[in-house]
Amino acid sequence: MFHPLSLFIGLRYTRAKRRNHFISFISATSMVGIALGIVALIVVLSVMNGFHKEIQERILSMASHATLSDPAGVMEEWPPLLAEVRAHPDVVGAAPFVELQGMLVAGSGVSGAVVRGILPHEEDEVSELRRDMVEGSVDELAEGEFRIVLGRDLAAHLGVGPGDRVTLVSPQVSATPAGIMPRLKRFTVSGIFSVGMADYDRNAAFIHLADASRLLGMGESITGIRLKLVDLWAAPRLVREIAYDLGGFYRVLDWTQVHSNFFKALAMEKRMMSLILFLIVAVAVFNIVSTLVMVVTDKQSDIAVLRTLGATPRRIMAIFMVQGTAIGLIGTLVGVAAGVLLALNVEAVVAGIESAFGVHFLDPSIYYISELPSDVHLSDVLLIGASAFLMSVLATLYPAWRAARTQPAEALRYE
To answer: N or C: which terminal CB in the chain sees fewer CB atoms within 10 Å?
Structure first.
């Protein structure tokens, strides 16, 4: 295939100077088809990567990388343990928390919620709650003041805002002369946050750690310790190593377990979209087969002359493999270059289209992400380019094999 004669004739056949310009047109169409398919794949996968990264960052801005808790559900004598955890080399930050599931009531509005008790300044080590505040401040969660911070959608459902009062009904009960009654406590809304994820904006609320412990009757105990690790992708391994180094028995939970179904769904979506879009490349590659079959038919006399001059069947086969490979290589290189360039500038391109036509693809009043994020992965680009090129090479085999089987006498009989 790399013999000078095969390269020269094969590359010369990619264009027709005198006789059959239609074959050159089909060759160019195949190149453009491969390039467009690769561009579509790279851009779509990069945008999907950008969306996945944005969603992941929003989830992890509220969910810790991992948690350590006692199997019994109550962690006592936790300050020394917290100091030991913070001293671990794999831990970037740690914060105590108390978690309960309750019901929030305001007027006629009722909603279930996951309420987390936190220490505001220590919470900064493991989450971005302070950054996500849209009204009020997380610092207003003071011990004994019984203030609460609500997600934006939860506050809208209850019809409350900063300064309004809500009643938290906890699942714990108290024995009273009137019988067994659920524990109720009125809180003042001191702030509202927005993460951009319905799981948190609609279902989460925060109060002070001491207020949560008092409401649950836990005294000075906590539910567990939230961790921020040096490498979030290694969280499953690191949190177990940390628990082992601490000694004792702890229940460990990392972010991949909490959101496993969600991230598996995203991964499946990306794989299926890749497969569907790769069909565009497959159709373009199939055009190479059509092109080479026509070229072999058109060049029957040329093949016969080359055979009579001593060219072997392998040399003839290599000539047509060079032609098809050249088409695939040019289409792949152009597609990869254009795809990466467009993926890196997709936000500017979309903004220009929106400005020119007066449309908005992602209305900020409907979608939390109002711009198209793009995250180009080198592994995706290399895989797409290599796959397209490999398919192009494979597409040359059958037409080249047919050319190698041409018999000189039969080909020249009617010339």
So the answer is: C
